[in-house]
Write a structure and sequence with these properties.
Layout (H helix, E strand, L loop, with lengths): L34 E6 L10 H5 L2 E4 L5 H4 L9 H13 L2 E9 L12 H18 L5 E6 L3 E3 L2 E2 L8 H4 L9 H13 L4 E6 L7 H13 L6 E4 L23 H14 L5 E6 L6 H16 L4 E6 L22 E2 L2 E2 L1 H12 L27 E3 L1 E4 L15 E2 L19 E4 L3 E4 L7 E8 L3 E10 L6 E6 L2 E2 L4 E2 L14 E9 L2 E11 L3 E9 L25 E3 L6 E3 L9 E6 L5 E7 L2 H10 L7 E7 L5 E6 L2
Parallel strand pairs: 1-2, 1-10, 2-3, 3-4, 4-7, 7-8, 8-9, 9-10, 13-18, 23-27
Antiparallel strand pairs: 5-6, 11-12, 14-25, 15-18, 16-17, 18-24, 19-23, 19-25, 20-21, 20-22, 20-24, 26-27, 28-29, 28-30, 30-31
Helix pairs in contact: 9-10
Length: 632
């Protein structure tokens, strides 16, 4: 489950000897595994005491380095805006990215009237001029927004010029013109990080972006990184031209799945987040997006750096659909918005991980999570839920996942984490405010291989709460329903015990508790050898014991107090799931086995007392059904 990521081959470590320092000095990401930068917007370089320098350690000129800005008149070059960003990086120990050599959305107006041959000459002159002025570039957006959109069109207006035919064309989608551009760039900057950059590549045109990167790499383009502009990470994101969006944050699970898809299908090709912004007048929405997305990228080993596209409210390119100019800004009226406050606090203690091989920060080796008490929790034994592991460093080494990363609890115990811990009577501490998808991990040591019974002390106000256990990434239980409180509209003090069996293997493991149905509180889990009574029963009158609200889990009181036995949860390495029903079609439970015969044998030998009669057992996957009889 935990991994240590090796660096890419040395051939990808292209920036190590560039003039701009590889380890950046300024900004809130100082000393991190990757930079967090921003854009410059004037012809004057920020000074060492300017807010830009205090916040960021990488610079991209918003418009100053684009071809149309520099060579508005053919043969005459104005470098002022680009120099401002470049000089800031050299003078302050920051990173600099040149943006961009080719873009169909911004080029000199005179280019449109040129022939194919003259266009090729103009491109060559432009590349040579940039090389002469900036011989030691660290990072370059070689080409910007060239994804094919169908009908001979692209993400930006390349077809208004002769750029594509001048550089070899685009023969049925082989992007030959891009391969040529990258080869031209490599000839001039042999040590620079060469980047392809595009928009709508996380939410809308994911496959098209992956195809472009893989195609030009296959065709020999010396491209070193894939720039994801990341303007499209809201529910209304990805409008025409990549103009950002609005609404709420992109669904987190979809976001993570897409990032993983990009990594998998490009063979973990290095990624740069190149133009990130969250346009919202709602501070809470903006903070949520940053706390989910930036945190993920910092801990993603294949993301080399993050550039935010503007930071002063009122001075960014987005206006929230006409509601507020510059609404993606992070500093408003001189005050940090909550998203920036969160980012500052996060970066104090979290430096991320970078396994790309690109010198865009301090390459840090991941560190695994560690037991909170210093040694693994013993099984059999009690697991106090507040004693989850201490998080490690790097992707895959978290010890908990919390939907909003804020601690809503009232306990001072581990208050520096995002887990919501609450004080209860008798000096108890419970984990509460559990949203669906939240999880906690514990390093455990199982004494012997065998079947164990878990007695979990849980509380819920409603009838939809549930959780699941897994070990080393594999489920060891079904979803376990949490009984609702017997009375009270918002009662999280009516604790019940739920009990279920799990098969465990001797040795050290990572046990994960995952919330599969919000909202529930959990105090502890007692894990004992199968057949042993609950050592800490909750004594309640029979009238106060809630019935099982989950129609897919049978429940019956078991020895050791008022614990509720859930289903027939047997877990095997390779098995089929079988559902059990009585003659009336009432669901009785689910069991895992290799065959119908084995499943029926397990049922008859189990400690659940079935009444005499005929029952049906159905393979959950194939829907085949058999019957069997309980005779005693």
């Amino acid at each position: 489950m935990k991994k240590h990521f090796a660096n890419f081959a040395a051939g990808l470590a292209l920036a190590a000897s560039c003039a701009v320092p590889a380890v950046a000095g300024p900004g809130i990401a100082d000393g991190a595994a990757k930079f967090i930068g921003n854009i410059t917007q004037s012809n004057t370089a920020p000074g060492p005491n300017d807010q830009f320098t205090q916040l960021w350690n990488q610079a991209t000129a918003e418009n100053g380095c684009k071809w149309g800005s520099i060579e508005g008149t053919r043969g005459k070059f104005n470098w002022a805006g680009c120099d401002a960003a470049y000089n800031w990086a050299k003078n302050n120990g920051g990173h600099f990215k040149f943006h961009a050599l080719l873009w169909g959305g911004q080029y000199p107006g005179w280019l449109e009237s040129l022939s194919v041959d003259e266009t090729k000459k103009a491109i060559t002159t432009w590349f040579d001029a940039v090389k002469a002025h900036y011989p030691d570039l660290e990072m370059i957006d070689v080409a910007n927004e060239a994804i094919r959109t169908g009908n001979g069109q692209y993400h930006s207006g390349y077809t208004r010029t002769k750029i594509i035919p001048a550089l070899g064309g685009d023969n049925n989608g082989d992007y030959a013109f891009l391969t040529t551009a990258f080869k031209m760039a490599r000839e001039r900057w042999p040590k620079a990080i060469l980047i392809y950059n595009d928009y709508n590549t996380i939410q809308w045109h994911v496959d098209q972006g992956i195809n472009l990167i893989n195609t030009i790499r296959k065709n020999g383009a010396p491209v070193d990184a894939y720039g994801l502009q990341a303007h499209d990470l809201m529910s209304d994101g990805g409008q025409a031209g990549g103009t950002g969006g609005g609404g709420v944050c992109m669904n987190y699970n979809n976001f993570v799945a897409t990032m993983q898809k990009i990594h998998k299908e490009t063979n973990n090709f290095p990624v740069l987040i190149s133009e990130y912004d969250v346009p919202s007048t709602d501070d809470g929405i903006q903070k949520q997006c940053y706390s989910e997305q930036v945190k993920y990228w910092m801990e993603d080993p294949y993301v080399a750096g993050i550039t935010i596209w503007g930071w002063i409210y009122g001075q960014t390119w987005l206006n929230c659909n006409g509601k507020a100019n510059g609404c993606s800004g992070l500093v408003r009226n001189g005050q940090d918005r909550p998203a920036l406050t969160w980012m500052k606090e996060y970066l104090k203690n979290n430096k991320g991980v970078n396994a790309t091989g690109l010198a865009t920060g301090i390459t840090a080796e991941p560190e695994p999570q560690t037991p909170f008490k210093g040694s693994p929790l013993a099984i059999p034994g009690i697991i106090q839920m507040e004693d989850f592991d201490i998080p490690g460093v790097g992707s895959g080494n978290d010890s908990y996942g919390d939907a909003d990363f804020e601690n809503h609890g009232d306990s001072d115990y581990r208050k520096d984490t995002g887990v919501d811990l609450y004080k209860k009577s008798n000096n108890r501490i419970v984990v509460g405010y559990n949203n669906e998808g939240d999880w906690l991990e514990y390093t455990v040591n199982v004494a012997e291989t065998g079947t164990y019974t878990v007695y979990a002390a849980v509380a819920a106000a409603g009838s939809t709460s549930s959780f699941q256990l897994s070990m080393d990434g594999k489920a060891i239980s079904e979803k376990i329903a949490v009984p609702a409180a017997a009375s009270g509209e918002d009662n999280y003090d009516d604790y019940n015990k739920v009990a279920f069996d799990v098969n465990l293997t001797q040795g050290k493991h990572i046990l994960r508790f995952t919330v599969t149905g919000a909202w529930l509180d959990i105090d502890y889990m007692n894990i004992v050898a199968k057949g042993e009574a609950d050592p800490n029963p909750i004594e309640k009158s029979s009238s106060s014991v809630a019935t099982d609200p989950n129609p897919e889990s049978s429940s019956s009181p078991i020895e050791g107090g008022d614990a509720i036995r859930q289903g027939l949860n047997f877990e095997f390495a390779t098995r089929q799931d079988f559902d059990i029903f009585d003659m009336q079609g009432t669901f009785m439970g689910r069991i895992g086995a290799y065959s119908f015969g084995q499943a029926i044998s397990f049922i008859k030998d189990s400690d659940v007392n079935f009444a005499k009669g005929v029952y049906y057992i159905r393979n959950k996957n194939t829907k085949q059904m058999h019957s069997f009889r309980i005779t005693e």
